[in-house]
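Researcher: Checking consistency across runs. Here is D-3-phosphoglycerate dehydrogenase again:
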Amino acid sequence: MAKTSLDKSKIKILLLEGIHQSAVDNLLNAGYTNIEHLQTSLDEDTLIDKVRDVHFIGIRSRTQLNARVFAAAEKLTAVGCFCIGTNQVDLGAALTRGIPVFNAPYSNTRSVAELVLAETIMLLRGIPEKSTRAHQGGWLKSAKNAHEARGKTLGIIGYGNIGAQLSVLSESLGLDVIYYDVVTKLGMGNARQVASMQELLARADVVSLHVPDLPSTRWMIGKEQIALMKQGSILINASRGSVVAIEELADALKSGKLLGAAIDVFPVEPKGNAEEFVSPLRGLDNVILTPHIGGSTLEAQENIGIEVSEKLITYSDNGTTITSVNFPEVALPAHPDKHRLLHIHDNVPGVLSEINRVLSENDINISGQYLQTNAEVGYVVIDVDKAYGAQALEALKHVEHTLRIRALYSESNFDD
Ligand SMILES: NC(=O)c1ccc[n+]([C@@H]2O[C@H](COP(=O)([O-])OP(=O)(O)OC[C@H]3O[C@@H](n4cnc5c(N)ncnc54)[C@H](O)[C@@H]3O)[C@@H](O)[C@H]2O)c1
Ligand SMILES: O=C(O)[C@H](O)COP(=O)(O)O
């Protein structure tokens, strides 16, 4: 096996929040043996203590990687979000420290879409209330407020991967699908984009939210928007807890404006299964409350474990950053018999020419060079003959605006 600058057994990997065993197996198979695999998230101070000597961290939606955590994580080389959302990570802080962040943008899409479709049917039939009554010894046999899904209008807000997949499944059941998105998108099947969220809210029998957590989506559904919805309609949120003003939703359910809701994500979620779940929605009729399990199926979790661990391994072994959510994306070939230098720098004029000047001055021939930049950071990858690896690394360290350098297959330090 090719020699890396830091022995793989010394590369420390911390996996939190019960990431699937498939990730651990994948990392072990790739030679990464120094893995700590925890079932819970960690509070900020504990996390800060733990990340000091960690090279790779794997998290899910609960762990907050903020600027303070990044400041403490001096050896951190990459972050893997073993989920879709990356709002729990300060992506800017990661970028300016030269740390790429990866996620699994599709692996739990199907799980969320299936759950929402199931909830649509359950809510249209008033099942949560009828089931609760039956558990209590009641018998609510009635067709009142019970409807077929066929012919009803589903309004999807956020027509991305989940929204589009939900659209296909729902049409196959006979629902009419309309959607609103800030981007103009071609509809799947007969689904039609509407011009405004207001129009969607006024037309849909069931509204389902599939937007990311962004400043523009925070509290995008509140009293005012609910007032536009049809009398007796249904709201489903399996996106982020910050999207719906939960007290205002509770009021709308109590008043009968909305007939039902299914909520998987909350403004405040328990840190773990042992903590009490507190919500104004508790105890309301025809409301399905689930503990942020939209993506929690064994199938999705196994696939996510494989996908994200592969991205971390590829970056560690080879420098490839394709699909990173915050970092310039570079796809790199293998580099047999060459030393590879990964140079991450502020994207200001002149850095690349300075790198090339320094190498040329030292008589170091470049056998391959790859560059990608985004607004803030430049990522240049340089392959050099083995004989020059250490010398090139030393020379590049002194280039102004260098944020971080890694050397692969070199005798020099891994994390300089
Ligand atoms: N409950 C769960 O367990 C679970 C699982 C997976 C994903 N999620 C959440 O679902 C979100 C959506 O996932 P996805 O994979 O479909 O993401 P995506 O990025 O593929 O799609 C998001 C869509 O929302 C649109 N959008 C952004 N801002 C908008 C706005 N203001 N109004 C209307 N549309 C807007 C985007 O243009 C995009 O089409 C994720 O960001 C994540 O937060 C939750
Ligand atoms: O962003 C996601 O993929 C979902 O919110 C799922 O998050 P989880 O991995 O914490 O269940």
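Researcher: Does this match what you'd expect to see?
Model: One thing to look at in this run: The pocket of 3-phosphoglyceric acid (ligand 2) is lined by residues 60-62, 83-85, 108, 292, 295-296 (CB under 6 Å).
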